[in-house]
Design goal:
Elements: H1 12-22, H2 24-30, H3 32-39, E1 42-46, H4 51-62, E2 66-70, H5 95-106, E3 111-115, H6 124-128, E4 133-136, H7 144-156, E5 160-163, E6 166-167, E7 170-176, H8 184-197, H9 204-207, H10 210-219, H11 229-248, E8 263-268, E9 273-278, H12 279-282, H13 291-300, E10 315-316, H14 339-347, E11 353-355, H15 358-369, E12 375-378, H16 383-391, E13 395-398, H17 408-416, E14 421-425, H18 438-451, E15 454-458, H19 462-466, H20 473-481, E16 486-490, E17 501-505, H21 508-521, H22 530-539, H23 541-564, E18 571-572, E19 576-580, H24 581-584, H25 594-604, E20 607-608, E21 610-611, E22 622-626, H26 635-647, E23 655-659, E24 671-674
Parallel strand pairs: 1-2, 1-4, 2-3, 4-5, 10-20, 12-13, 12-14, 14-15, 15-16
Antiparallel strand pairs: 5-7, 6-7, 7-8, 8-9, 11-17, 16-17, 18-19, 19-22, 21-22, 23-24
């Protein structure tokens, strides 16, 4: 231990002048009384690495007058990615000693006691002498019994204890108040599971960025945890604020209390969340349904996983639409403008209308676009669009190149022959989610102008397309939508909403036609409050872009996770990963319905996928793993499920169709029976 006298400092007059200026800005904010009070307080910092060291520096700059620093560690190069005092000049030096020098250099005369040997069984009581609050940043390798004694001593002395472990870019802050719920048993179990089983609480992927959680779980048992400077900066600022609040509440009881156990504070900048959560909720088991229950449910559903209960699986990747699942954290704040007005600004259109569902919007527009006997050039339209156009009497002619683009010659010939419209889809689902090319759309626009035909864009995933290019996403969306005569599409695939669809017509006469049709037929179909909720989403375009990028990153992480496990990926779109069931189950033929076999097997493993909705070729049978925006994705869990299926795939037999209900939806509701062995 280095004893309790300050380091040598500058001559007194020079030091006092420096301190007066040093405190000036904080004094303007807090006042002299609070500053004087903070100078009388002492913070005990157990562990001076990332969060501990940065928080001590932050509190020192705030004017806290005393610190007890304990850390046996010395700096090595890996520390420099996040620990503010780690630099080439400090390599090999003790962390507590380096921070003592830094604190005295920032605030000359700061009271310091330094334990270069760290906290031991022999010095716990000495460490707490004169301290007012505990900041625990002990390394994960510290023995559980010693860590528990540190917490117990703080509680016995009537002190708050604060810890804030970091996870990727975020942090979880845990605070134990004097006389409240103790922290020792809770943290002991957390550290035990992390360090010995390499497992974080089951609900962590719902709060922290799932790829970061997966990376930590791969490494944490090695006591070399993946970290970032972002998380240290975030955590140290948040922790310093809570510690300052705890100290200043001794003077000002009107300050709200900190969140204390059993509540914890979870902060994740990638999700833009700052929330208080009950600690036990993090450990609440994921939906647990045993295999036998899933087998019975699958049999009842006619061996069609798409008809089996979604509640029986841990991860539902059947659809990327929030209209197909319960919506968490739905925004309800008033945006100050209607959803239609927000849509005009966000999509760069005029006179937009918001209705309840994408398929409703398609049904409204189909007579305008198609009409009886008209020809519409399409590029792999979504099944609902295909149905509504045909129901309105249109003849659909495929003009795609099979890769998401268009066959320019086919478009030209069709328009020259009198086609009424060309229909294109952003992030085309049937083709595996390729990105629309703005130059290609411009070329189609020019051909439509010459022919007097309409260009229609299905914009259900336009923001997903936007974030995958080099252009600024919002500007790209406005440029793309500005080329269309009609924009139409569900909002539930690009926004965190379970309702809502856009209709935007560039031609004034079309806008009047749509307005009258909506008002006089059935209304917009929105319930009370839904327009305001959608408006709130569209008011924050930056968040739309951020969640779009996050979804694309999650899809990419899933593809890489599968490939890393030796699993062949057929295609990666902006919204989904596509697997070829024929390639993964080579002992089956197309006649065995391998796409349904794979979906059923995944369902039994707790993951729901879907056979591709598009027309399947005999040599390729896609299964889609779709990811909604704002949906936590446990990549490791999906990869484990696919690996488990493929490990015993030789035992998977084919299927035969046992029943097909009548009507357009019959093929999607088929029932299957085991095929001949």
């Amino acid at each position: 231990m280095v004893g309790g006298t300050p380091s040598p400092s500058a001559p007194r007059a020079e030091q006092e002048d420096y301190l007066e200026q040093f405190r000036h800005r904080t004094r303007l904010l807090l006042g002299e009384d609070d500053l004087t009070f903070l100078r009388s307080r002492t913070v005990a910092v157990a562990g001076c690495g990332g969060v501990g060291g940065a928080t001590a520096i932050t509190l020192c700059r705030l004017g806290v007058g005393g610190f007890v620093l304990a850390d046996p560690g010395i700096y090595d190069p890996p520390d420099a990615n996040r620990q503010w005092a780690a630099r080439r000049s400090t390599m090999g030096r003790n962390k507590a000693a380096v921070h003592a020098e830094l604190l005295d250099d920032i605030q000359p005369g700061v009271r310091l006691r330094v334990f270069e040997e760290g906290i031991t069984e022999d010095n716990v009581d000495a460490f707490f002498e004169g301290a007012d609050v505990l900041l625990d940043c002990l390394d994960i390798s510290v023995p559980a019994d010693l860590r528990a004694r540190v917490y117990q001593t703080a509680m016995a002395r009537g002190m708050y204890a604060v810890t804030s472990p970091i996870f990727g870019f975020g942090t979880m802050m845990v605070i134990a108040e004097p006389g409240g719920m103790p922290m020792d048993a809770l943290i002991r179990e957390f550290v035990r599971v992390a360090s010995t089983e390499s497992r974080l609480p089951p609900r962590f992927p719902e709060h922290f960025w799932p790829p970061h959680v997966a990376a930590i779980e791969r490494e944490v048992h090695k006591h070399r945890v993946p970290t970032s400077s972002v998380a240290v900066t975030l955590a140290s600022g948040a922790v310093a604020a809570e510690l300052a609040r705890i100290l200043l509440r001794e003077r000002d009881a009107t300050l709200p209390p900190p969140p204390v156990l059993p509540d914890v504070l979870l902060i994740e900048p990638l999700r833009r969340t700052w929330r208080v959560q009950r600690y036990e909720e993090l450990f609440r088991p994921l939906p647990a349904v045993d295999r036998a229950t899933r087998e019975a449910a699958l049999a009842t559903a006619g061996n069609n996983a798409q008809l089996a209960p979604a509640a029986h699986v841990e991860l539902d990747l059947m659809s990327d639409s929030w209209g197909e699942r319960p919506l968490p954290d739905a925004p309800t704040a008033e945006s100050g403008a209607s959803a239609s007005e927000r849509a005009d600004a966000a999509y760069g259109v005029e006179g937009a209308m918001i209705v309840s569902r994408g398929r409703y919007a398609e049904a409204l527009l189909a007579p305008l676009i198609a009409g009886s006997g008209r020809v519409v050039g399409v590029v792999a339209p979504f099944p609902t669009a295909r149905f509504h156009l045909r129901a309105a009497g249109a003849r659909l002619v495929e003009v795609g190149d099979g890769l998401g683009g268009v066959d320019d010659a086919a478009v030209g010939a069709l328009l020259d022959a009198g086609a009424s419209a060309v229909w294109l889809e952003a992030c085309n689902n049937e083709l595996g989610g390729p990105r629309l090319d703005l130059d290609v759309v411009r070329a189609v626009r020019e051909r439509c102008d010459r022919a007097g035909a309409r260009l229609v864009l299905d914009v259900c995933r336009v923001w997903t397309d936007a974030v995958r290019g080099e252009d600024e996403p919002a500007a790209w969306v406005r440029a793309l939508c500005g080329l269309a005569d009609v924009c139409v599409g569900s909002l539930s695939k690009d926004l965190r909403t379970d309702v809502g669809a856009l209709i935007a017509c560039a031609r004034p006469e079309d806008r009047v036609w749509v307005r009258d049709r909506v008002a006089l037929m059935t209304g917009d179909g929105l319930r009370h409050g839904e327009d305001a909720r959608i408006a709130s989403l569209l008011a924050d375009v930056a968040k739309v872009v951020g969640e779009g990028r996050a979804r694309v990153a999650a899809v990419g992480a899933l593809a890489e996770g599968l490939r890393g496990a030796g699993i062949e990926v057929a295609r990666v779109g902006g919204h989904a990963v596509f697997l070829d069931a024929l390639a993964l189950l080579p002992h089956l033929t197309a006649l065995d319905h391998p796409e349904q076999v794979l979906c059923n097997a995944l369902y039994l493993e707790g993951v729901r996928a879907a056979p591709h909705l598009g027309e399947q070729r005999d040599d390729v049978r896609w299964v889609r793993l779709a990811v909604p925006v704002g949906q936590p994705l446990d990549v490791g869990r999906v990869v484990a499920a696919v690996r488990a299926v493929l490990a015993t795939s030789d035992h998977l037999g084919g299927l035969v169709v046992s029943a097909t209900p009548p009507g357009e939806l019959g093929p999607y509701a088929r029932r299957f029976a085991p095929g001949a062995p």
